[in-house]
Amino acid sequence: MSNLHVQALHVHPVKSVAGTAPDEVAVEPWGLSGDRRWALIDPEGTVITQRRHPRLALAAARPAGGGRIAMTAPGMAELFVEVPEPGPLEPVMLFGKKVETVAAATTAADWFSTYLGEPVRLVHMDDPAVRRPVDPDYALPGETVSLADGYPLLITTLASLDALNSLIAQGDHPEEGPLPMNRFRPNVVVSGAEAWAEDGWLRIAIGDAVFRGVRECGRCVVTTTDQETAERGKEPLRTLAEHRRIGRSLAFGRMLVPVRVGTVRVGDEVRVLL
After folding, report:
1. Residue 1 has pLDDT above 90, yes or no
2. What is the model's pLDDT at position 258?
3. Rounded to whole angstroms, what are the CA distances from 216 to 134, 202, 210, 235?
4. CA-CA distances (angstroms) from residue 125 to 38, 92, 102, 112?
5. What is the CA radius of gyration of the chain?
6. How many CB atoms lie within 10 A of CB 162?
């Protein structure tokens, strides 16, 4: 028996918006069911994230049945958004690459535009099986991903967060710590591991599912954004730059690609296979 277990699961239906923490969720080839199937775009068709709009952290999306989502945000009435009917595909730009999506209803565009104070629209990835391949430098043939930054899932460990917070406490900005796990927006959080053990996980099993450990997760300015206030600081990037530089990445967590789909649950044993 492994000492490693799933401590929490997180699904973010809308990219860069707060999500939910289900007790169990299905694993699909492109990620957790419902994770990052929606995103906001600007008038030029570029995907918008917390990098540009920290206030997205204060909005939240939850599944509302049938693929639709319920949206909430400070000062806004709750909005239910239906999955768009099949229609013309709309190319959007995500990290410099074109991804085809379907536009959501104009009510969603109006709601988000009012909240952010500038014109934006909501789009939906209709068919993640074909729309966007995983980075070919790390992918096997046919692997795809939703509107996540680059890979289907992100896994983190409580021990690594504790180790990082200890380093922050010894650094230039100790007043910013300890940081909560939501700064890193993971899909799977694991208890019982040693700090940074996930760096070496090449293949793991959780519940019915099996995953390839692809690479470290390089962190960006979003991690410096307090997910409860939308205010930005210096950490954890200052400490990661000093202690967790792997190649060109400031690393925290590991990217996964499903090898076998199934269901994962809070409390599931995590088995390191390779």
Report:
1. no
2. 98
3. 15, 11, 18, 19
4. 6, 10, 6, 18
5. 18
6. 12
